[in-house]
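Lab notebook: predicted structure, single chain.

Context: the supervisor wants predicted structures on file for every construct in the current expression panel, including those that have not yet been purified. This is the next one on the list. No modifications to the sequence; it matches the entry in the shared construct table.
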Amino acid sequence: MVKALVGLVIFGFIHIIVNPLYLQLRAEDVTQPAPASQQQPLKTVAHKTVEGVVTGLSGNFMAVQYGRDETQQVCLEMAFNVDPNVKIEHKQSIKDFVMGDTVFVSYDLISEKFDDDTELKKIVATKISFVRPAQKRPDEAALVSTEEEPESLPIKGPKGE
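Prediction complete. Output recorded below exactly as produced.
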């Protein structure tokens, strides 16, 4: 009976000491490195500029047409989200720009490349400079003639009658 009691105490001691160590080792085995999508991407920043005509505007957005691809017969256009930190030159704010104004935009092209070969690109405007105002279009009312049409000419018969 003493042997059974000693065996039970030793079993309990081993169970109390070894079981937490086993669970800790097991938890370390389960802990794995973060998947590739959660690892830090390779980030590159390129500073670029573009000059073009404003084709779209809102309180925090500007679209600029900077050229035309003649082979595909399409206009080349870039869109910029304009946050309050963007430096604006020769105007007070983005609200002072109008469609057709020529602007010079400095921006950062931020590229983040992940291990699984996916790439995320983001364009962030850093400075917008006003170059020249939109070309004035003639007023439509000025194009309409105010002269009255002359009275209709009488229809004449065949020559000699």
